[in-house]
Amino acid sequence: MPKDLSGFRKDEIRQGYLGLKGARIRSYNDERFERTLKKKVNPSDFSTSTEETTPLSEREFETLWNSFIRKISKTRYYFPLQDGKTAELDLFHGPLEGISFVEVEFGSKAEAERFVPPEWFGLDVTQEEWTINYELAGRSKEEIKKLISDLIRGRK
Question: Which residues of 117-155 are buried (b: 16+ CB within 10 A; e: fewer)?
């Protein structure tokens, strides 16, 4: 991971989840608020999804936030990559402090397959269901570290 993150654009994000895996609320820097329904395009492929997003007022967000049990907070850094792509690096806070994931969005499966990630990206966990933020919100840092360790052992 890059050592100095100070020169990159970032957002402080809070997300909350109800019972549906794809239903969330999100705050960006406590300035922009939204509700999103995320749906997988193919149930067996975690790399493709669609999103329907609706703006929320701060009051609506805070009312919902206070009723949610599954929550995460993270800092998201934006890194410019080749071909105009952007890497989004999420550094989690609270119970998940020390966990990080990076994501890049693509316009097609072929584009994703051609992508050569920078070395600092590390292990590809795209198809691991437990990396979905809804799943992360219900786990501890120790559980996530164990899942990563098990995945590494399984790939050797």
Answer: eeeebeeeeeeeebbbbbbbbebeeeebeebbeeeeeee
Phi and psi torsions of 137, nearest 5° = -60, -20
Could you tell me the pTM of the whole model?
0.87
Are the beta carbons of 25 and 32 closer than 8 angstroms?
no
Answer yes or no: 17 catalytic.
Answer: yes
Per-residue confidence (pLDDT) for residue 3, from 0 to 100: 83
Report CA torsion sign: 16, 6, 145, 120.
positive
Hey, which residues does 9 pair with through a beta bridge? Answer: 78
The residue from 17, 28, 77, 78 that is catalytic is 17
List the chain residues with pLDDT less than 50.
none
Count the helix, strand and coil residues of the chain and give each as a percent rounded to the nearest 5: 30, 40, 30
